[in-house]
Amino acid sequence: MVTTLKPANQPQSESPTGEQRVVFNGISWAQYQQILTALPPSRAARLVYACGTLEISMPLEDHEQASEMINIFIRVLVLEMGLKLKSMGSTTLDRQDLDRGSEPDKAYYIQNQPLVAGRKVNLKKDPPPDLVVEIDITHTDIDKNRLYAAMGVPEFWRFDGHHLRIYQLQNKQYVEVEKSPTFSIIAKEDFYEFIDSARQDEISAEREFRAWVQKQLTNS
């Protein structure tokens, strides 16, 4: 894989429209739970709640495509690096004790996968996911860095359709880093190239990226 030195490209003909959002303020935890329960399980909308603010977002094509491509990217790395994985997708991560809840785009247990393998996760007893991914192409009123830091998520990726930001939890706060603590063999430029390639054809992009990762591991 030949690395590039630029963020992932977007089509020049139109601006990305990744999500439609509605925000409610002054919502209690009980009201948030009532809304969460009232919505059908098959819904596409996702909820994020933080200390009285509830945001309901409807992901659109740019958002969903980015989410799927990032999932492929992570799964290839996990498989080729011989790591373990429990995918949580957009499972609701509720922490009443923190007055926060979220349905992230992607969440993964990797380092702590053996602790939650083969059963449902209980965040009252279990650690949070090791890696959470959020795609926010449009503005969000929720401070997601503070939200996931409060939950104790060790690694947090944010993608706005152009730029990837990687955060590592240090002393209960996120510090932006250039390389993933989990996948240190890749750089952001490798991610951008994969995303650009996958926008044209996900299968060939996955095949080429898998071969590139194998080569990096062989040469390391």
Fold and architecture overview:
By secondary structure, the protein is of the alpha+beta class. 33% of the residues lie in helices and 24% in strands. It has six helices and eleven strands. The protein has helices at 29-38, 61-80, 113-116, 144-151, 188-200, 202-219, and strands at residues 19-24, 46-50, 53-59, 86-87, 93-95, 100-102, 106-109, 131-135, 155-159, 164-170, 173-177. The strands form two sheets. The protein has a six-stranded mixed beta sheet. Strands 1-3-2-6-5 form a five-stranded antiparallel beta sheet. Strand 5 (93-95) and strand 6 (100-102) form a beta hairpin. Helix 2 (61-80) runs parallel beside helix 6. The chain is globular and about 55 Å long. Residues 1-6 have low confidence and may be disordered.
Helix-strand layout with pairing:
Elements: E1 19-24, H1 29-38, E2 46-50, E3 53-59, H2 61-80, E4 86-87, E5 93-95, E6 100-102, E7 106-109, H3 113-116, E8 131-135, H4 144-151, E9 155-159, E10 164-170, E11 173-177, H5 188-200, H6 202-219
Parallel strand pairs: 8-9
Antiparallel strand pairs: 1-3, 2-3, 2-6, 4-7, 5-6, 7-8, 9-10, 10-11
